[in-house]
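Hi everyone, sorry if this is the wrong subforum. Our group has a chain we'd like a structural model of before ordering constructs, and none of us has done structure prediction before. Sequence below.
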Amino acid sequence: MRISRAQPGPVFAQPASGRPVLDVREPLAHDAAIMRKKRLLGLLCSVFLLHLAAAESPPAFPSERFRAHVEFLADDLLEGRDTGTRGHEVAARYVASQFQAFGLEPGGDDGGWFQRVTLQQTVRGAERGSVTITGPQGVARFVHADNALVRMNGREPVQDVSAPLVFVGYGVEDRLLGLDDYRGLDVKGKIVVALRGFPKGMPSEEGAHVAATKAEAAQRHGAIGFVSVATLQSEKADPWTRRLRYADDPDYGWVDADGREHQDAPGIRVGASLNGPAAEALFAGSARTLDHIRLEADKPDARPRGFALQTRIRIQVESSSQRVTSPNVIGILRGTDPALASEYVVLLAHLDHIGVSIARAGEPADQDRINNGALDNATGIATMLEVARAAAAAPTQPRRSLLFLATTAEEKGLIGAEYFVRHPTVPVGQIVGAVGLDMPLLLYPFTDVIAFGADHSSFGRLVADAVTPMNLTLAPDPMPEQGVFTRSDHYSFVKQGVPAVFLVTGFANGGEKVWPEFLGGPYHSPNDDLSQKIDWQAGARFAEANYRIMRAIADADAPPLWVEGDFFGDTFAPKGLRAEK
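Answer:
Right subforum, don't worry. Here is the predicted structure as C-alpha cells:
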C-alpha cells in the first residue's frame, strides 16, 4: 500500500518484500510532515484533556435552583405536606415533574413515578385507654395520657386483655451481643415489663437496634403484651412530659398483602408505657422495688435480672381505623457500564412533614399552625433533586444506576422507606449502597459533614475522599449517645443488608451552636419555615457534596462493603464480602 503524495506525512515506497520503508528522496517534506503531525497530536491531546477535565468536574449547582425547590415545597399552600393530604400529593407531583424534566426514567409501580403505599390510620375511640393493676396492695386504675400511655392496635379495634406480669430487665435479646434477658423466665401467655432503652455503657447504635426489637423478642418467648417503664437515663433523654405531647396522635402502619396492618410482632396484642405511681404499682409485693432496680440500672454495664411479679394487669382501649394512600416518588438514571448498570445506588429523602397543628384552647384564631418543614425536610428533597439534575446532565454518565427516592410517612415511623425495601421496584439484592438526606441544617456556612454510620462500612473513607476536593472534612458522630444511625429512612436499607449512611451538615464553623438551637426551637413547629435565615449557597454546596459522593459510589470498581466484624453487617448481611477495618 502506498500513501498518496498529496497527503501530509512521510512517504513510503513498497519494496518487493511488501514491507514499507521510508523514502529518503524527500527529507524536507518528511521533516515538515513530522512537525505537522506533532502539532496535530498536541492539539488532540489538549482537546482530550479539556474534555476529560469537563467530565470529571461536577456540573454547576446554582443556589437559585436550590432555593426555588425549598420555597415551593415549604409554601403555606402545601399545608405542611402531611402524609395522605392534598399538600403532600402536590409535593409528590412536583418531584415527579422535576424527575421527568431531568430525563430520568420512572421507577414506580406500573411504569409510573409513584409507588402507592396503602396506610392504615388508627385513632382513639370512646374508651381512650386505661390500665388496671391488681396485686397485694389492692386495685389501681390509671387512664391514658395521665401516668399511662396505652398503645392502640390497628388489628383489634376493641381490646380488653388481662394477664400476669413478668419483669424481664431491659427485655433485650441478641446472640451476637451475648444478650438474653429471657434466660430462665416463663413469659408464655403473660405480659412482660421491661426497662426502656438499653444497658448503660452499651454502644448506642447497637443498643438502639436491640431496643427497637424488644417486641419481637417478647413474641418469640410467647408473651402477649409489653409494658415499659423508664430508667433514670431514659427519662433524662426523653422526659414523660415530652411524650405526653404526642399521646393522642393517630398511629400509622402500612397494609400487608393480606389486607391487614403490618406489624413486626403481631403476637404482642397490647402495650403501654407507665410512669410514676402506675409504674411503681407493677412491683407491689415484690422483693425489689422499681427504685432499687432503677438505681442498679444506672450503673455502667448493669443488667437487672428478671423475675415474676406479684401483680397482674388489665389493658383496655378502643380505636377506629381508616385507609389512606400516599406515594413514594422514584426516578432512575441508568448506568452506562454493562457490567455494573444492573446495580443501584440510592439517594433518598423524605418528602412528608407533620402538616397543620391542632388548635389549642386559648390560642388566637389567626395563629400560624402550618408546620412548613423547610429544613425538615424540604432541604433534603432539594438536595436530592439537584443531585439528580446534575447527574443526568453530566458529560460522563455514571457506571452504576442511580435511584432517587422521595419517601412518604417518615414522620409516621419510617414507613415509606420500610415499604419500599419490602416491596422494591428494583431487586433489593442489586442495591449496593444508600445515602439518606434528612434535615441538613443550612443556617451557616458548614465546613464539615457527618455521615452517621460511616464507621460500619467502607462508606466512611469513600465519603471523606469524595468531599476532600471541596475543602470539606468528614467529622465523627458528635452525639453517639443518640443512636442517630438507626433513626432515619436509610436504616430500612441497612436492615436489608445494604451499607448506608445518613448525611448532614457538621458541627464545625457554627454548627455546634445551630443544631441544639434548631432542635430546641423551630424543629417540628410552624417556625421551621422560610422566615429562617437559610444559607442558600450552603444548600448548593451540600448538593455538590452529595453529587460527588453518589458519583464516587456509582463509578467505583467495587461497591461499599461492611467492615469486618461489624455488628450490623454480621446481623443483616452475614455472608457478604467484607472490608478491612
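For your construct planning: Residues 263 and 340 are 36 Å apart (CA to CA). Residues 27-56 form the longest helix (30 residues).
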